[in-house]
Design goal:
Jelly Rolls, homodimer, 4-stranded antiparallel sheet, alpha+beta, 9 helices, 224 residues
Chain lengths: 224, 224
């Protein structure tokens, strides 16, 4: 990626919104960019890491893998989102596997650059703290969902969290969605049909429309 | 709690290890302490919060509750551990419920005190970031466990993470342990008997001894 294009891109990211021109120039100058083709792996669990990764473009997923090859997606990241900061600030090992859902570009900032950036402007640290806080809350919701919720309730929670004006653009295959919800593709398909049959949603390709907001909220809370 | 006793207590906490005498005095002077009797609730999910809570003594659990009253424990906190920082740095709402496993004392630091502490010494922010990073990794392990692991594997992972020189002091009832592992008390009891029968562990009251470290590691990885 051209340095000018990169600068224009990262300038829009909330993470770097407090940086001035000189800091942005420095950031872009030292950053390394890696391309990951759709479906490609970027790293595996326990890989050593330091510094900071930020997604420049595309979409990636962080996932755990069982001995039998079953996947559970933990987070999906979009442009502007830093990831696996928790490794840098704890044991220096990646917490899970990362692969690309779309052609993606990742920016890497070295530990030295990160430290100098934080040193110059501590607000970056506060922004990282906010990002990590939000993720921790999301992870707790996921634990709640996996341990205590039925499949329709999990799916309703997902649609409600992703909807904009009653519409959800999946932006991924139903197979990928099943790995987020933590079910088999077959169970997902059955549940979607049931929810559509009950008039809660309608499905058109990769677009889901919420037809009954209150009903879907009741479904999420296990009241339906 | 007497202010001198409190100062001597918090001085030992890693979170405050960089504070000098004046800062410690200030911290203790402004802190409010709440006692929670064993079994008592401290707060419910979504309660508004700001500032920082640190456990002074005892043991508490953070847990989610289903519509039907089923519990899933997310974290257990001991003395010196701050909790629910993620709420302060995100939407200001408690992520789950908190109750005491033993008679406990919680110190509360107001948002103003917290800000002034961070302002005087940014290393507190870095320590909080490390704590949150570790929790986020633990939460991801729990997602992995709930979504992809069988009960013996989850239990093996728990014992291995908690053991010291081959021994695990539970420090809680088996009923509480079942809420951490995410199983019914009956399934936990069956699994414990099976693991003891297989020579992996032996159980004596609330003490579990690991008899076969390699075997238990294989069990955790689903290879047994």
């Amino acid at each position: 990626m051209d340095k000018d294009v990169m600068k224009a891109t990262v300038r829009e990211f909330r993470l770097f919104s407090k940086l001035d021109e000189t800091q942005l120039d420095k950031l872009v100058e030292h950053a390394a960019v890696t391309r990951i083709p759709k479906g490609g792996m970027f790293f595996s669990e326990n890989k050593a890491t330091q510094g900071m990764h930020v997604l420049l473009s595309g979409k990636v997923k962080l996932f755990k893998l069982s001995e039998e090859g079953k996947e559970q997606t933990i987070f999906v990241f979009g442009p502007g989102e830093p990831f696996c900061l928790c490794s840098t600030f704890s044991d220096g090992k990646m917490p899970a596997n990362l692969s690309a859902l779309e052609d993606s570009q990742v920016m890497f900032i070295t530990p030295e650059e990160l430290e100098s950036m934080v040193h110059e402007d501590a607000s970056v640290l506060l922004t990282m703290m906010r990002v990590m806080s939000r993720r921790l809350k999301e992870a707790m919701e996921m634990i709640d969902s996996l341990a205590l919720k039925q499949i329709p309730s999990r799916l309703a929670a997902y649609f409600l969290s992703q909807q904009q004006e009653g519409n959800v653009e999946l932006g991924m295959s139903y197979r990928e969605l099943s790995k987020i919800i933590g079910v088999t593709p077959e169970a997902l398909s059955r549940t979607l049909k049931k929810m559509a049959g009950d008039g809660l949603i309608s499905v058109d390709g990769s677009r889901v429309t919420i037809e009954d907001m209150q009903g879907l909220e009741d479904c999420r809370e296990g009241r339906l």
